[in-house]
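We close this part of the discussion by returning to an individual protein. Part of our work consisted of pairing the sequence of a single chain with a tokenised description of its backbone. The amino acid sequence and the backbone structure tokens for this protein are reproduced below.
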Amino acid sequence: MKYIKANRYIFILICTAFIIGLSCSKSELEHEPLANFNGIIPGQVMDVQIEPLAGGAKITYTEPTNDPDFLYVNAVFTKSDGQQVDVRASKGNNELSFFGNGDDSEVKVEIYSVDESETQSEPVILNFNPLQAPVKNAFETLNVMEDFGGITVLVDNCDTVALGIQLSTFDPETQQEILIDEVWREAENISYSFRGFESLETTFIVRLRDRFDNYSEDYETTLTPLFEQEIDRKGIKILPLPGDREGGCWGGSMTKLFDGNWNSFCHTCVGGGFPHSFSFDLGAKIKVSRYIVHQRQDSKCCDWYKNANPKVWKLYGSNDPNPDGSWDSWNLIGEFECYKPSGLPGTETTAEDLAYQKPGEEFIVPLGTEAYRYIRWETHETWAGNDFTHIGELDFFGQVVEE
């Protein structure tokens, strides 16, 4: 009998909670007007001006003056593909913007003023032609070139919008198009390398899309990716030069830069300020395509983006370095900077930053760079400002030119 009463009590509690949940859902989901209809239809907006923008427009207006209950403006845009988009602007804004049209075809806009009772005015109806959509502007600048292990896509994103870059190829048996990858970028000048391809003639299809699912045309090209291999770390040796910083301090060793163990590290000695350098012999003349930096990772002292992990550095190359350590025989390969997705100052990090750094950070060497046997690393800044450098591992990729 006690069990029956207990079950009945639980059932009543569940029903009560369910009813309360329903009432909460209704009040939260249904938008009630702030006031009852007062019998007055809101006046229309006035002095409407339209400034066409890339894929959209900026609209300015004067709010109605004959309705003290005026609350907001609602503009209903009918895109050239027939889809409707609502854009609202609160009282006092006097302007609103619309984006997302896929081309420069005519767009219809109906502009309503709305009062506290959610009563709408008669619409002001206008038509306009947006400027060419950002995805189309970007496509006109798109360029694709062969690269090590794949291709590099270059895009001038003059509107600085988020763009998806899609890469497809054809299945060799069925000739059906296969989507290989898609990446999103928002930089003004986009350069992205798709890798993992053999050095065989391949037809690539590149297309762009924006966050409104507007697509560019297809860019189809047939290229042969350059052969690329990971450089055998067993053949890499340290090149001691006068003026370089010793790398065996605080339990580190320069040889641990190339031992295949991310948990070991090299650690240059303290003192001497910036910049400071160290050098190594790749074991053969290499046309380097890219390299990966694995920052030292130690939660006790030296986590990613902290302590003396490198932030800004330069790489130099040489095929006949002067044994006196002077720089005349070294050519600049490039200046590089460690990227932190969050953009937080100093050594502050987020989960996104740590996830980005976990597999190591890849750096691209300019495609036309000469082949070198000897590399010199010059640190210009570390994440915590320490005047020494520690690194977990360096991985180099490219093409052996001369053993």
Q: What stands out?
A: Residues 1-30 have pLDDT under 50 and may be disordered. Residues 2-29 form the longest helix (28 residues).
